[in-house]
Specification:
Blueprint (H helix, E strand, L loop, with lengths): L28 H4 L10 E4 L2 E4 L8 E4 L21 H12 L1 H15 L2 H9 L4 E7 L18 H11 L4 E8 L22 H18 L5 E5 L9 H18 L4 E5 L20 E5 L13 H9 L7 H12 L3 E6 L7 H18 L2 E4 L3 E2 L14 E3 L15 H10 L5 E3 L1 H7 L14
Parallel strand pairs: 3-4, 3-10, 4-5, 5-6, 6-7, 7-8, 8-9, 9-10, 11-12
Antiparallel strand pairs: 1-2, 12-13
Helix pairs in contact: 2-3, 3-11, 6-7, 10-12
Length: 445
């Protein structure tokens, strides 16, 4: 995920589609809530649709678990004093307390950022999909590159287990590859972008994905593998070539799951051409459209209406993407969207519901950024970036990790697991309502 100062996002090209209804979407909300443990529930690509193994169309909608397995400091009220990405934090903790203590503190943070309470809250919004962004060192031993950590599967196994028992599918998203695949902070190490120039980093990423694919090849609750988040540190042609190598590596180990091909900030998915012509099967394309953010006009009713209803000429917005995706005969995944922030709570909730409904009619999967956002003062205000946030007045201090004591850091990390939450009320109501709003109708509030 990105902040306004963190990076640019795919703009109007990065899109979604307005197409006729996909016929009957046979996976009902009640069915979606059933545990996902049977092989028949595994999803796959069939033409431009996401379907179960038995060929039933499935609507996949949900949220990202941002800031959990790869830190984004703006999401937890931190980031000042020169420490604004995970690599900087880890380096400071290593220098001050040593590597074993750094590892203990990071585990403390992760164990408190997502708890069973969070999984229950997430499910209460009626979602059936989570995207789990992770940095490579969650799985790979950074002290012994190319080897698994002793606890390599602790968090991914746990996420899949918690999700599947609540009827939620999981997309595993390599958000921070070895060497960093972009310049941005959310790749783990801002300003690095060495993935593309150091062959060993690419080899390690091939190895990592083969470990993941071998472990989860038969897990029906895994909806797919998002190979590289926003790999914009190179040109689109090189991106597509490297991603194809990753695709082949995964397919050697896992013939079952959807492999998700990332788009590029400048040329979206054009560099891939028709994936079938490259020998790639059971794949989906991924883009991150953010109407109202990162230079794409201003958050509000108008920008979302233009996007979702293809205004003003009926040819742009989601309509353009609908045509392209149908021509490519490949499913589409909106890996990051933000359809409610900064618009007021009621309008934000209505626009979010309209957005998810539009994507469902198109047969696209979509995950919002993000499930949770924590600020120093708390409260949603005019609409935070979270489905939930810390309650107004449940303050979170901004620490200087350069000088804060170990006890103060521990207290902060434990606090994330004890904060009273404030769900986004209208978002929760509209996401689970049997009646859909029309936020774009004349006179709508």
């Amino acid at each position: 995920m990105r902040t306004g100062t963190g990076k640019s996002i795919a703009r109007g090209r990065a899109g979604a589609i307005l197409m006729a209804a996909l016929g009957s979407l046979t996976l009902t909300a009640a069915q979606a809530a059933a545990p996902i443990v049977d092989a028949s529930q595994m999803v796959r690509a069939e033409g431009p649709r996401w379907v179960t193994r038995e060929g039933k169309p499935v609507v996949l909608k949900g949220a990202n678990l941002g800031n959990w397995l790869i830190n984004e400091f703006w999401m937890m009220g931190q980031g000042k004093h020169g420490i604004d990405d995970q690599c900087k934090l880890e380096a400071v903790l290593d220098r001050r307390f040593g590597y074993p203590e750094r590892e203990r503190l990071m585990q403390l943070f992760r164990d408190n950022w997502m708890t069973p309470k969070d999984w229950d809250l997430l499910a209460s919004f009626g979602v059936n999909l989570v995207r789990v962004p992770f940095i490579h060192t969650v799985v790979e031993d950074e002290k012994k590159p190319g080897r698994l950590r002793a606890d390599a599967w602790h968090y991914l196994d746990g996420a899949i287990r918690e999700a599947e028992k609540r009827g939620i599918y999981v997309i595993l998203d390599l958000h921070g590859a070895a060497g960093s695949q972009g310049w941005e902070h959310h790749s783990g190490c801002a300003g690095r972008n060495r993935y593309w120039s150091v062959p060993d980093y690419q080899k390690r990423t091939v190895w990592l994905w083969q470990q993941v694919a071998s472990r989860y090849r038969d897990r029906p609750s895994v909806a797919g593998y998002s190979l590289l988040n926003e790999p914009w540190g190179t040109d689109s042609a090189n991106m597509a070539a490297v991603v194809e190598t990753l695709y082949k590596a995964v397919r050697e180990k896992d013939p079952n799951h959807v492999i998700i091909l990332p788009g590029h900030v400048k040329d979206d998915i054009k560099a891939y051409g028709d994936p079938k012509a490259r020998g790639m099967e059971n794949v989906a394309f991924e883009m991150h459209p953010y109407p109202g953010h990162f230079g794409w006009k201003t958050a509000g009713r108008e920008v979302h209406r233009e996007w979702l209803r293809c205004e003003p000429d009926g040819k742009g917005g989601v309509c353009d993407w609908e045509r392209r995706i149908r021509e490519l005969d490949t499913p589409f995944y909106l890996g990051e969207i933000q359809p409610w922030a900064s618009m007021g709570l009621e309008l934000g909730g209505q626009v979010a519901r309209a957005s998810f409904d539009t994507y469902a009619r198109l047969g696209w999967a979509a995950t919002a950024w993000s499930y949770k956002y924590v600020s120093n003062k708390g409260g949603h205000g005019e609409g935070s970036w979270g489905m939930v946030t810390n309650a107004a007045g449940a303050e979170v201090p901004a620490l200087d990790f350069n000088t804060a004591s170990k006890g103060e850091i521990e207290t902060l990390f434990r606090r994330f697991g004890k904060l009273p939450y404030e769900p986004h009320g209208p978002l929760l109501r509209w996401m689970t309502s049997a009646t859909a709003p029309d936020p774009f109708a004349i006179g709508a509030r």
